[in-house]
Amino acid sequence: MSKKNVSHTKWMKRAIFLASLGKNTTSPNPKVGAVILDKNGNLISEGFHFKAGMPHAEAMAFRNLKKDAKGGSMYVNLEPCCHQGKTPPCVDKVISSGIRKVYVSIQDPDKRVSGKGIKLLKEAGIRVHLGLCKKESLELNKAFIHRNITKKSFGVLKWAMSIDGRIGLKNGKSKWITSEQSRSIVHSFRAEFDAIIIGGNTLRKDNPLLTTRGSKNPEPLRVVFTKSLDLPSKSSLWDCNKAKTIVIYDSSTANESYLKRIPKCVEVEKIPSDNPELISKLLAKRGCNKILWECGPRLATAAIQTNCIQEIITFIAPKILGGENSMNPFGDFDFREMDEIIKLSNSQVSLIGNDICVKNSFEN
Ligand SMILES: NC(=O)c1ccc[n+]([C@@H]2O[C@H](COP(=O)([O-])OP(=O)(O)OC[C@H]3O[C@@H](n4cnc5c(N)ncnc54)[C@H](OP(=O)(O)O)[C@@H]3O)[C@@H](O)[C@H]2O)c1
User: Fold this and answer.
1) Which of the chain's ends, N or C, has fewer CB atoms near its CB within 10 Å?
2) Which residue's CA lies nearest to atom 10 of ligand 1?
3) What domains appear along the chain, each with residue ranges and CATH number?
4) Do residues 328 and 280 touch, judged by C-beta distance below 8 A?
5) What separation in Å is there between the alpha carbon of 245 and the centre of ligand 1?
6) Confidence of residue 172 (pLDDT cuts 50, 70, 90)
7) Hey, which residues are catalytic here?
8) What is the mean pLDDT of residues 219-237?
9) Contact in structure between 197 and 225 (CB atoms under 8 Å)
10) Verdict on whether the full-model pTM lies above 0.85
C-alpha cells in the first residue's frame, strides 16, 4: 500500500472508530463517524452520530470545525444522506462547505439515499472515492444493512448449555448452568440489542427479567411470543418501570380471554400465524436493527428454520447434566443427510472464568 493510501486508511479507520461510539444508541439509524481534514491534510474536525433525531456524523463534524474546510477532504464510513429526515440532508452541508474530496466507505442501503448522495456530491464537482475499509464498515453496520435489505431485524440467538450440550434437566430445572460471571456479561451484552425475545414457555418456566441491569437506557424492548396467550398474571416482564414489554400472539391459535391477565402498560400485538419471521418483520418495522433471541429449543428451532437468525452465541459451562431426556438447545430439524445439517462459520472463542463463549455466523 502506498504512503498516501496508508493515511487514507488511517483516517477512514478513525471515522469507523468514531462511528462505533454510537454502538448501542443509534438504532434505527446506522453508526456513522466523520473526519474532516483541511486542504493541507491536517485534522480540523470530527464527529459521530449518537442517536436518532440528533445530528448526523457529518453535521457534528461541521459543528466541531476548528477552521475553514474549503478545499479539504472528508472521510465518512457511510454515504452522506441526501433526504430530509429528522435532520437536514448532509450532502448539502458537504457541498456548501467547499470540501473537494469525500472518501466514503460504503453506500447507504436505504433506498432514499443509496447512490443518490454520492451522485449529488459528484454533480457538485466533488471527487468521491468509494470503498475504503469496506469490510470493517460492512461489519460495523451489518444489522442496519440487514434490516434495510431484508426488512427483517438482524437476529442473534443465545443460549447457555453444559459441556454435554444440555440446557436443562428433564424436569425443566435449568438455573444455573453458567457462572455468575457469564450471566453478568450477558446482562451488559444485551445493551447491543433493540429487543430481546422469548417464547411463552420460557416466561412461564423461568420468569426472566431480560434487562441489561442498567447498562442501557432505555432498556431493550422485551418481547414474548405466544401461540396460546396462556401467560401468568404475575411476571417480572409485567413490571413496565424496568423496561417496555410487548406480547405478540398468534391470533389463529390464542385464547384471547387470557388477554385480561396482561397489565395495561404492556403492549399487545397479534399476528396471523406462529411464523417467527412475522415477529422479525414487525420489529424491523418498529426500527429494531438487532434483536436477541433468548428462547428455548422450540422457538429457537422455528427461528432458525425461518431464517431469523444470523449469528449465534453459545455459553458452555464445564458441567455434565447427562440423561437422554435432558433438554437440548434445539428440537428436530428433520435432517436426513449430513449435507443438510447447518454449518456455521467465523468461530470466535473466549474464556469467561471456567465457561467458554463461542460466537458464530449463520449463513442463511
Ligand atoms: N439454557 C438456556 O439458554 C435457555 C434459554 C431459554 C430457555 N431455556 C429453557 O427452555 C425451556 C423452554 O423451552 P421452549 O422451547 O418451550 O421455549 P420458549 O422460549 O418458551 O419457546 C416456545 C414457546 O414459544 C411460543 N411460540 C410461538 N411461536 C412458536 C413457534 N413457531 N414454535 C415454537 N414455539 C412458539 C409458544 O408459547 P406458548 O406456549 O405461550 O403458546 C411456545 O410454547 C425452559 O425450561 C427454559 O428454562 C433455556
Assistant:
1) N
2) 296
3) 3-140 (3.40.140.10), 147-362 (3.40.430.10)
4) no
5) 17
6) confident
7) 58
8) 98
9) yes
10) yes
